[in-house]
Write a structure and sequence with these properties.
- With about 210 residues, this protein is α/β, with parallel strands linked by helices.
- It is built from 9 helices and 6 strands; from the N terminus they run ααβαβαβαααααβββ.
- The protein has 2 domains: about 35 residues, no CATH class; about 180 residues, Beta-carbonic Anhydrase, Chain A (3-Layer(aba) Sandwich).
- It is globular.
- The N and C termini lie far apart (about 40 Å).
- The relative contact order is 0.13.
């Protein structure tokens, strides 16, 4: 079965190649992209297989710069570098590519947030349990505001509150804060409800999530 899955993916690559590489020159799509990339938006999304930022936004190759991780989390800024893949991607997008927008894209039915809120599906002291602790403040906030609610409601609130927490963490990066102040970098929190197919945006004024009017 796994082999058939790989063959299907390879067939998909053939279609991709036929579409973009049938003829390659400086005037064709990938001919223009071969030398440089100029995406306007960084999307920090979840690794969840159902939430592909390019698919959701119908973006073309080269249009968005994407970093994905469990629960679409942004860690706080830490001095000294080290092995920080998400932080490195944010730095590259903001400093080198000079993107104009950064979107934290969360979603319904997030397994990472469920692990955070309910301690489900994780290996004790494993990588996932350690990683989602980045959003521990979000969990505390939700449990205070929504004490006594059922598990699904807590997870839904956790999914949204973790986006707010990641937006706060984004501003702890000096180069992000500088870009916001000096060149108008926009920071946005978006929530994709994959159960209803709706997008919600976190409002700048009231910090509440509202349906995006399309």
């Amino acid at each position: 079965m796994a082999k058939m899955d790989i063959l299907r993916l390879m067939a998909g690559f053939r279609k991709f190649r036929e579409r973009y590489f049938e003829t390659v020159s400086e005037d064709t799509y990938f001919g223009k992209l071969a030398g440089t990339q100029t995406p306007k938006t960084l999307i920090i999304g979840c690794s969840d297989s159902r939430v592909d930022p390019a698919l959701i936004t119908s973006a073309s190759p080269g249009e968005i710069f994407v970093v994905r991780n469990v629960a679409n989390l942004v860690p706080p800024y830490e001095k000294g570098g080290g092995f920080h893949g998400v932080s490195a991607a944010i730095e590259f997008a903001v400093v080198n590519l000079k993107v104009e927008n950064v979107i934290v894209l969360g979603h319904r039915q997030c397994g990472g947030i469920r692990a955070l809120m309910l301690n489900e599906g994780t290996v004790p002291n494993g990588f996932v349990s350690q990683w989602v602790r980045i959003a521990e403040k979000a969990k505390i906030t939700v449990l205070k505001k929504h004490a006594g609610e059922d598990d699904e409601t807590l997870c839904r609130h956790g999914e949204k509150e973790s986006i707010r927490e990641s937006l706060k963490n984004l501003r702890t990066f000096p180069f992000v804060d500088e870009a916001v102040k000096n060149r108008g970098l926009t920071l946005m929190g978006i929530y994709f409800d994959l159960e209803s197919g709706q997008l919600l945006e976190c409002g700048e004024d009231d910090n509440e999530f509202k349906n995006v009017e399309l």
